[in-house]
Amino acid sequence: MQAVRLILMVLAIAGIIYAVEYVPRGIAVWFWVVLLGVGFVGLLYTFRLTQRRLRAERREAEQREKRRSRRTKR
Questions:
Q1: Pairwise CA distance, residues 15 & 3, whole Å
Q2: What average pLDDT does this structure show over 16-38?
Q3: Which percentage of the chain shows pLDDT scores above 90?
Q4: For residues 45 and 13, what is the distance between their CA atoms, to the nearest angstrom?
Q5: Mean pLDDT of 29-45
Q6: DSSP output for 4-62
Q7: Residues 12, 40: contact at Cβ < 8 Å?
């Protein structure tokens, strides 16, 4: 999913360049800028979700390890 968003962001940058060069009205530029912003926010959001999930998994593994070490000490 992140790869799709990244490709769309590259296309949005190309669209901005095209709109600035060849389209006389500014609305096309704003369309591509908004598309680029949405893609960036989407990438940031999925990155944060992935990092949060990895942190939770790491924390669970540490807690399991602590429980095992407590059981072996008894």
A1: 18
A2: 79
A3: 20
A4: 20
A5: 83
A6: HHHHHHHHHHHHHHHHHHH-SSTHHHHHHHHHHHHHHHHHHHHHHHHHHHHHHHHHHHH
A7: no
